[in-house]
Each structure stands twice: as C-alpha cells, then as structure tokens.
Amino acid sequence: MNTDPDLSLANPTESVTALGSERKPYIRPLDLRHGRIDMGHGSGGKAAAQLIDELFLAAFDNPWLRQGDDGARLALPGWHPTQGRLVMACDGHVVSPLFFPGGDLGSLAVHGTVNDVAMMGAQPLYLSASFIIEEGFALAELRRIVQSMAAAARAAGVAVVCGDTKVVEQGKGDGVFISTTGVGVLAPGVEISGRNAQAGDAILLSGCVGDHGVAVLSQRESLAFETTIESDSAALHTLVAAMLAAVASAPADLRTLRDPTRGGLATTLNEIAHQSGVGMTLQEAAIPVRQQVNAACELLGLDPLYVANEGKLIAICAPAVADRLLAVMRAHPLGQEAARIGTVTADVHRFVQMETGFGGRRVLDWLSAEQLPRIC
C-alpha cells in the first residue's frame, strides 16, 4: 500500500497535461529530428522548460519528476508518513570564471544543492560530488576549489559522502565542472511545492536580487567594469528552518519556497505561476536591488530581475502569516533585507505583472534566451 501522500496526487499513468500544465510558455514543439541545443536551453527560461517537458520528462515520466519542484519527495519502503520522507535534489555547476567575489565553483556547488533540498522544506544531510576535470588543469587551483567546497559543506552541516572523478582531453572541458546530489529529510506535514500558490497569497523575497550575477560578470575578461558587489552565494537551510518553525502550528500556510537562480526572480515567479495555475502582481518599488547592481545592469543592457542569485529565496505564504514570516526572515542574517513584493492573483493566463514606479504595469515574461551564460 502506498504511504507517500505525494503519490496520491499523481497517478503514474496520467499525462503531464492531465496534471494541469496544459498551458505552455512556448508554442512550437521541439524539432527533435533536425534541431540542436543552444545556450538558451540552459537558461532556466522558456527554452529550458520546453526541453525538460518535451524531451526529458517525456522519456523519464514518473509522479516524482512530474511534481516539477527543485527536488523529489521520496517515501522509503516500509516507512510510515509520520516518520517523514527523504528529499533528493541534483545540480550541475559550470560557472565561469571559477573564482569570483564572494565565492567560487566549490562553495557554489555546495550552496546550490543544499538550497535545492531546503526549498522543499527539508533538512539537508548528505551530498555527492562528481568532478569533470580538463587535462592540464592546475592542481593548485583544483585544491583551492576542493578545500572551498569542503569548508562550505562543514559550515552547512552536510557531509560529502561519495563522488566520482573523470578527466577529459585538453580543450574539451573548460577547467572543471561539478555535479552534485543532495539528500535531506522532510518532517511530517511539510508539503512545500511550486504547485501550492493560491490567489490572495503574499509573495516574500529574502533580499536584494542580482548580486551573484553581477559579481560573476565583473570578473569576465570581456567585460571591463568594476563593482564592490560580492556574490550572495549562501546555504539557506537555516533561514528555511526558522520560517518553518514560525508556522509550525499550520505548516500549510507556507506554500512555496524557491531560490531564484537561473533566469532570476522574474523567470522563477513564472515557473511557480505556471505550476500553480495562478497569476502574480508585483510592486516594482518593493523589490530590493542594490544601486551598484542597477548601475551595472544598465551598463550591460540587462534587467536585474532576470539576473541569477545564489543566496536568496522566494516565499509564497498565506496572507495571515506574511508579517510573521517577514519578521522572522529579517531577524535572520540571510534575510535582513527581506521584503513583501507582491500578491498571487487569480489569472487563467498565469501572467506575472509588475506595477511600475510610473503608475503603469508591465508583464514579466519568462526569460526567452540565455542572457548570462555560465553564471551558476
């Protein structure tokens, strides 16, 4: 007998369309005969969503994958729901350059995977790490990355318990790529998902957006600009734990958590709106963006709402607990600049809209192409 409540929401024989994802953010199907991968397929935007939906999900379709979250909730055979469940998430890290203000590939690999587990409401416990290393890469730099990764894992309270190493020919690996998998434990009664947002819910943001992307860009040889901005890369599980503790009597009031990495805030909110079948209205003046980030984005022709973050989270919650959660976030070192930035709305079109400082309104669409490659 199935004891995982998640499986009651998804029959393995059902199609993706039957689960409410009939409105796609794209129109034309993939050309699976003649088409080729381009950088947009790794952006986290429309092209990436289509690739996942029409190729990977079509091939691997199962109720866990079909949930569409940052990880999968898994019930072990013989476990009862009151014992909690496991969460598993994986992530690949291809950032360029490998070292940037506020972080590097090693710490980023830990933080990104810990955060994917935490966004499910789980306590991260273990990591795996797979290294793909280019022939000729300096051992001193590899040691620096590994030591940074180890320090980040210790600070987050997780252990790297298994791994793998592969070497590719010179010119075919671009230094180092790291792939990680995270495992955590989910307490009974916690059901955080991108499909839970409801009309009237509050949208909270834990801090300023765009810091990570601008910090990485400032180190690229082709972009000559200076900034004091450092990456916001951080493990967010302690912030999530504090938020869950604040709604312990009614955990369902915390509907959705998501870290806005690839595609930034705007694309991540579109993902959630698409999953839940709702719309969203944001207030431009309420979204925190540092002046230096705004200036750098203006120089480069970028919108900070689409720039990647690695230490921020979006929380969607019942309006009755919004002020309480916001206070908890602001009391935590990783949420001191938290803000209430908008409201979930009833909208069959699933539009994310923003009320601008000029009194107008504009639609924040999915990211349609890769504007910042190799950012995380």
What does this structure look like?
The chain has 376 residues and is α+β, with helices and mostly antiparallel strands. 26% of the residues lie in helices and 22% in strands. It contains 8 helices and 14 strands. Strand 13 (352-355) and strand 14 form a beta hairpin. The longest helix has 18 residues, at 139-156. The model is unreliable at 1-22 (pLDDT under 50).
Write the layout of secondary structure elements.
Blueprint: H1 46-60, E1 72-74, E2 85-93, E3 99-100, E4 103-104, H2 105-118, E5 123-134, H3 139-156, E6 159-168, E7 176-186, E8 202-205, H4 211-217, H5 237-246, E9 254-258, H6 264-276, E10 279-283, H7 291-300, E11 314-317, H8 322-330, E12 339-345, E13 352-355, E14 361-363
Parallel strand pairs: 5-6, 10-13
Antiparallel strand pairs: 1-2, 2-7, 3-4, 5-7, 8-11, 8-12, 9-11, 10-12, 13-14
